[in-house]
Amino acid sequence: MFFFYFLTLVAFAISIWAQFKVKSNFERYSKVEASGHKTGAEVARHILDTNGLHNVPVEPVRGTLTDHYDPTERVVRLSEQVYYGRSISSISVASHEVGHAIQHQEAYGALVLRHKIFPVVSFSSGIAPLLLIGGLLLGSLNLIGFGIILFSAAVFFQLVTLPVEFNASSRAKNFIVSEGIIRNNEEKSVNKVLNAAALTYVAAALVSLFELLRYVMIFLSGRNNE
Predict the structure, then answer these.
(1) Phi/psi at 159 (5° precision)
(2) In the annotation, is 59 catalytic?
(3) Which residues are 10's β-sheet partners?
(4) What pLDDT does 109 receive?
(5) CB neighbours (10 Å) of residue 2?
(6) Do 144 and 215 touch, CB atoms closer than 8 A?
């Protein structure tokens, strides 16, 4: 059991480090203007139009690193710093979010699956912790078992998210290189921005996976002691 606690702590430490890397890399390369001299909004619009997504708007949104693609309204929303910025960070993040819009257009398998299981996960992720904690406090294996089932859905969702995010980053890099938005010597900087962001999803998935394994071990240990 100690081993799983140790793994969870390691994964949590990686998560903290990943968040630090995202912020530090974003801030670092937000001060470096891209050679194409385009804003994040202009890059996003260009890539969308090139891929026939003229009907997908690009909108500014308040906050830092609040960038996202909304599949329900089919709109790319970029934080103001990314929307108006002409930096390596701005075009990297903007093109990544556009990658999600193109995934949506092409019905990319992992993205479609994530959308389908989201309603289940939004319910289970809120109930699972209560059942697991309640089961531990009350010594109820039934509650723990049910909590594990619901928590498994949330973990599965995070694992499905990984290929979605990595694919969007891969598309982003291909777009901005092929369209001449960046030069070859800027690819390394773009990679640092996008890879740091991807690492946060990996770390979050690891934390959840190790937590799930810990609860499974508790459940199995309780069954053996009955």
Answers:
(1) -70, -40
(2) no
(3) none
(4) 95
(5) 6
(6) yes
pLDDT band at 68 (very low <50, low <70, confident <90, very high): very high
User: What is the spatial distance between Cα 26 and Cα 10, in angstroms, rounded to a whole number?
Assistant: 24
Return the residue matching tokens 């059942």: 131
107 alpha-carbon distance from chain centroid:
18
Angle between helices 141-178 and 88-106 (to 10 degrees): 110
Beta bridge partners of 133: none
Separation CA 164–CA 159 (nearest Å):
9
How far apart, in Å, are the Cα atoms of 154 and each of 77, 87, 108, 118, 196?
25, 35, 20, 9, 23
Backbone phi, then psi, for 60, in 5-degree steps? -80, 150
pLDDT at 98 over 80: yes
User: Residue 68 and residue 71: Cα distance in Å, rounded?
Assistant: 9
* Average pLDDT estimate for 71-82: 95
Please give the helix or strand (H or E) that residue 79 lies within, else none.
strand 75-79
pLDDT exceeds cutoff 70 at 1: no
C-alpha closest to that of 95 among 29, 159, 183, 167: 167
Which residue matches tokens 């069954």? 223
pLDDT > 80? residue 4: no
Amino acid identity, position 154: A
pLDDT band at 219 (very low <50, low <70, confident <90, very high): confident
Phi-psi region of 34 (alpha: psi -120 to 50; beta: other; left: phi over 0): beta
What is the mean pLDDT of the segment spanning 76-100?
96
| Separation CA 100–CA 96 (nearest Å) | 7
Choosing from 97, 165, 186, 211, which is the catalytic residue? 97
